[in-house]
Each structure stands twice: as structure tokens, then as C-alpha cells.
Amino acid sequence: MTDPFDVLRSHVRSVALLEHPDTDPDDLVAQITGVAEPITASTRDGASVLAFPAARSPRSHGSPRRRRWLVVAGVSAIVVAGGAGVAAFVGARPSTPTAGVVCRASISNSSAIVIEPSADPVAACADLWARGDLPEIGQKGPGEIPRLVACVGARGTLEVLPAAKGQTCAAAGMVEADPSGSLDDPVVALQERLAIDINVAACQAIEPATDIVEAALRELELPSWTIEVRQPTATCVIAVVEPTSTRVLLIPRSSPTD
Amino acid sequence: MTSRRADQPDGGAHARFTALVREHQRGLYAHVRVVYPHVDADTVVNETFTTAWQRIDELHFDGAATATTWLRATARYIVQNRRRGERRWQALNDKVARLDPVAYAPPPDHDAGIELQMVMDALASLSTSDREVLLMTALDDLSPEDVGEILGVRTNAAKVRVSRARARLRAAVAERTEPPDQGGTR
């Protein structure tokens, strides 16, 4: 008889020839580079806990605690944090709009806690460090508060991260935020509103999403802003605010039935 | 006014990422479909490339650290995370791990079909880790170094794991081909 491994090899290679991904490579690039963000969240003590995708080398498996939080990334659910107004979309796919302040455990991509929008995000995140919720999520007890900097992350999310002396947001690939004026900023207000009205919905279709964006731009007096629909045939979309080009992008995302 | 700008890698990084996706998406998808048939391959591939995009400035593939092994190792990590979160994973995995030899590429003749069925039955009887290593080495010509990188173990350990898995596959097939023991000798 033929070596069983040769039989297996012949079979799986013929299987592989028939396998094609659903997504065209260029569409996949557009999806990822348009919305690349942390992937998931859960709740604990009234806060939304968000785990960033594994930032690791193949040999680096992270600590057990870190891995435990990354496990959460596989769970799909919509989580609304305790208190008013903060919601984080939780999904297995990497399209995660967040409407709160992201308190990061480290300057690199890492576990983080999403809290409600705050007039003083640095102080709000410092509280989590003082309570011992950071840097090890889930580990209670008094902790030291490192030097924290407020940065603007992808899609305008406000992220507060620990930084060594002399380190700036640029070390994390971000720019400095101006926390003092953030809540009064119409762009922040636009982002918060679209995140809550569009992005946390299980599936928001293009037409109602466009209506919501138009109304928000009108009410926030942003008349020069434009709306761009990336894929007119998309079933579900999320809104991405692009302040640099004064555009709101409606980007396809998977529907709940996908 | 708050200063804000998306923290995206620069244009050169975008071009490198696009080239990475174009070159490896299909192969990675096939790898995930074959080696981890219980997961949604599109989702795992998407998450793998998302991780690559977020680290694109750090990723420089040369020497042993090839894009192929990095992507497979990252996909494996993502699959493992999903697996831990799925209570019914084991049952589901057992159910689908046979790779359905009928649904794909029908064998050219009856004997070959019987042989393949026997091999697939034997494969399904092995442990998850044996199946994983057998399927990934059957699909791609991976060196022991590559297997070690993907599994996160040393090269020697990878060699041993591959060798033992193949031996167990041969033994499992042999069990199915040898006549049953008649119950002792005279």
C-alpha cells in the first residue's frame, strides 16, 4: 500500500486547489486598512474591556493573563457599558468602532479598558491605574500611576497610554490630543454620535446611515463635510470620521447573518 | 481644535501590505481551510492580515522568519484563541475533521477511494495536534524550522512531532488493513 502520508498529501493538495477565499485581495486590503482597529470587548465592573488583536511574534505567546483577555476576542456580542452613553461594538471581525476613551495598558498594542467619554480622559484613566485595574486587567489592588499621555488613535478615538519621560504619542504612531477641548469639538461630537447611532447597530443599511450622517453634519454645522460610500452594494456599513479630509466614510462590514 | 489624524502606516507600508495580501491570501486561506476545518477561514484570514497591518512597520521578512510562517503562526494563534472560547469545539472538530473526502476531489478509481477513506478515517482517529501537524506538512513543503516557527516550538521538537505523527498515522491505517485477531494460536 502507498504510504498513508503520501495519500494524505495528494488529497489535501487537491482540496487546496478548490479553495478560494470569499474576498478579493484588494477588497481585503481596503477593508483592513480602512477600519483596522482593536477587535473586541467585554464588560467588567461597568466598563467595556477591549482586547487588541494579538501583537506578537510567532514565538511570543504572551502571559497567561494576557492570553485570557485575548480569548475574549472570540466572543461576539453587543456590550453597552454601565452608565450612560458608552457603547463598544464587539465582534469577531476587526471592525470595532468605539465611542469612549481607550485607556491602554502599554504604549504598544495591548489590552485596554474603554471608559465613558470624559472631560478629563487622562484623569479618568489614571483612576483605573490607581485602582489597580491597569496595567494588568482584572488584577485589583492599588497601583502606581505612570506618566499618561492622551493621543488620537485611528478614526479619531481618544487613547490614553503610559509613556516614559520624553516619549510622545508618536511612539505609538499617534498624534497628541487636546483633551481640554475634546468634548466640545464638533468633530468629536460627530464621531460620538455616529458611533452610537450607526456603528453599534447590529446592521445599519446605507440609506438610513446616510440620513443619520447628513442630519449630524447639519446639526453640528459642518457643511463642508462630504459623505463617501465605499461600496454601494454593501448590506451593512459603519461610519468612519476622517477629519483630515473632512469626510465621513461609510465602509462595508459583515452582516450578522454572514 | 483637536488635532487628529488616523494612526495609519505610511504609503510605503500600504504598498507592502497590499503585496503581502496579494501574495499570501490564497495560500493562507487554503492552509486554514485544510488544517483547521472547523473555523471560518475567511474570518481567520481577515484577522491574521489585520494583525499584519497593525504591525506592518515592524514586519521585515527575511531568512527563517518568512511571511509564510509568520502568517501561519499568527493564524494558528487566532484559531487557538477561538478554540478556547468554543465549548463545543471538540465535538465539532471531531465531526468535521475528516475533510469530507467525497465532497472534494473524487479519487480516480475505486481502490484509491477506499485507500483514501481509510487514511482519512485513520487521520480522524488521531489527536488534534497530530492532525494539525500532518495536515500542514501535507499541504505545504514546510521545513522542520518552518513547522517549529508555526507551532512555536524548537526545530528538533518539531521534527519529533512530525515524525511521531506520521508513525501514528501509519499505525492507525495498519490497524484498519490488518485482519482482525482470531483469538490466539494453536
Q: What does this protein look like?
A:
The complex is a heterodimer of chains A (258) and B (186). Helices cover 28% and strands 22% of the residues of chain A. Chain A is an alpha+beta fold and 258 residues long. The model of chain B is unreliable at 1-8 and 87-109 (pLDDT under 50). Chain B is 67% helix and 0% strand. Chains A and B meet through helix 1, helix 2, helix 3 and strand 9 of A and helix 1, helix 2, helix 3, helix 5 and helix 6 of B.
Set down the secondary structure blueprint.
The complex is a heterodimer of chains A (258) and B (186).
Chain A: H1 4-17, H2 25-35, E1 40-44, E2 47-51, H3 64-71, E3 77-80, E4 87-90, E5 101-104, E6 112-115, H4 121-131, E7 148-152, E8 158-162, E9 175-176, H5 186-199, H6 206-219, E10 226-229, E11 236-242, E12 247-253
Helix pairs in contact in A: 5-6
Chain B: H1 11-35, H2 41-54, H3 67-85, H4 89-96, H5 110-125, H6 128-139, H7 144-151, H8 155-177
Number of β-strand runs of chain B: 0
Strand order of the biggest β-sheet of chain A:
1-2-6-5-8-7-9
Structural class estimated from helices and strands of chain B: mainly alpha
Overall form of chain B: elongated
Query: What's the overall geometry of chain A?
Result: flat
Order of helices and strands of chain B: HHHHHHHH
Q: What key attributes describe this structure?
A:
A: about 260 residues, 2 domains, 12 strands, about 20% strand, flat, B: Rna Polymerase Sigma Factor, Chain: A, Arc Repressor Mutant, subunit A, 8 helices, elongated
In short:
The complex is a heterodimer of chains A (258) and B (186). Chain A has 258 residues and is an alpha+beta fold.
